[in-house]
Amino acid sequence: MKELSGKTKVYGLIGKPVEQSMSPAMHNAAFKDLGIDACYVCFEIENNNVKKALDGIVALDIKGVNVTSPYKQKVIKYLDKIDPVAKKIGAVNTIVNVKGKLIGYNTDWLGLVYSLEKHMSLSKKKIVILGAGGSARGIVYGLKKKGAEIIILNRSVSKARKLAKEFNVEYGGLEELNNLSGDILINSTRVGMYPCLNVSIATKKQIQNFSIVFDLVYNPIETKFLKLAKEAGCKTIDGLNMLVYQGLVAFELWTGKKPNFNLMYKKAKDKL
Ligand SMILES: NC(=O)c1ccc[n+]([C@@H]2O[C@H](COP(=O)([O-])OP(=O)(O)OC[C@H]3O[C@@H](n4cnc5c(N)ncnc54)[C@H](OP(=O)(O)O)[C@@H]3O)[C@@H](O)[C@H]2O)c1
């Protein structure tokens, strides 16, 4: 971040809670690196103030915001326009303020796709996704778009079924992992997230049937699930990759400039 001036443009994050967010560290580093006179700050918003917050973005000419839990669905009804992909996914994590009109996008799915495509092409790959919550929706959309064969396994099978039917993919309960193998195994559940560090959504025996193992959980960076995957000889990818890529795409939507991934990753990791 440059020294603030009368011309400094403001970007930010809305959600609740936001104080642990790594987004200010990575975006402010990218602004500084690219010599952009802008800053990124966090706004903790109460549930009944979401509309007022969006009106405030326009009134204060805040140029863009990220949206985090629990408002990724709620903001949709207050936007002037929504990108068709974000509409299909049903969640917005990035808003661009174009001359007072708020346009919603979803960059989470690209975060996952870019993280995986660094390691292998996704076309025709067999991918098992554990979890059927908010983040799984974007993942299923992105992987299906890339031509992967997807199976969703979830604790509540009814939720897996609902998501699977919508995207025309296979589904089942978590226990079905015992009988499955594939190219990529993804944890999109909350299991293993701080402070419950010593738990994994899958056993080493189940994990060892996959080549690449990806955990959306990024706090801690190396979850128990990823530790077991390493022990089983799988290639592992941590959730910070996805977080940084979704931020990188949001940054491009706001500024038209491509930030440095490694710099943003390092700043986010330092913050953790
Ligand atoms: N790396 C990134 O950029 C990124 C982006 C988005 C999210 N995330 C992370 O992804 C995780 C999920 O987020 P979300 O928004 O999808 O959450 P969510 O909508 O609340 O969904 C939570 C999922 O976790 C499952 N689950 C929770 N506790 C479980 C348990 N004890 N055993 C088995 N399954 C359990 C739920 O299963 P049921 O349906 O049975 O309840 C559901 O499928 C979070 O840790 C979040 O921080 C990371």
**Extended strand count:** 12
By helix and strand content, what is the structural category?
alpha/beta
**Mean pLDDT across all residues, rounded?**
96
Bound molecules: NADP nicotinamide-adenine-dinucleotide phosphate
Structural features:
37% helix; Rossmann fold; 272 residues; alpha/beta; 6-stranded mixed beta sheet; 2 domains; binds NADP nicotinamide-adenine-dinucleotide phosphate
Tell me what the structure shows.
- The structure is a single chain.
- The protein is α/β, with parallel strands linked by helices and 272 residues long.
- The protein folds into two domains: 9-106 and 242-271, Leucine Dehydrogenase, chain A, domain 1 (Rossmann fold), CATH 3.40.50.10860; 110-237, Rossmann fold.
- It is 37% helix and 22% strand.
- The protein is built from ten helices and twelve strands.
- The protein has helices spanning 23-34, 50-59, 84-89, 108-117, 134-145, 157-167, 204-207, 224-231, 239-255, 261-271; strands at residues 9-15, 38-44, 64-67, 81-82, 94-98, 101-105, 126-130, 149-154, 170-173, 182-187, 210-215, 235-237.
- Strands 2-1-3-5-6-4 form a six-stranded mixed β-sheet, with helices on both faces. The chain has a six-stranded parallel β-sheet with strand order 9-8-7-10-11-12, sandwiched between helices.
- Helix 1 runs antiparallel to helix 10 (261-271), helix 4 (108-117) crosses helix 9 and helix 9 packs across helix 10.
- The radius of gyration is 19 Å and the shape is globular.
- The two termini are 20 Å apart.
- The model has no long low-confidence stretch (mean pLDDT 96).
- Bound molecules: NADP nicotinamide-adenine-dinucleotide phosphate.
- The site of NADP nicotinamide-adenine-dinucleotide phosphate (NAP) has 25 residues, from helix 4, helix 5 and helix 9.
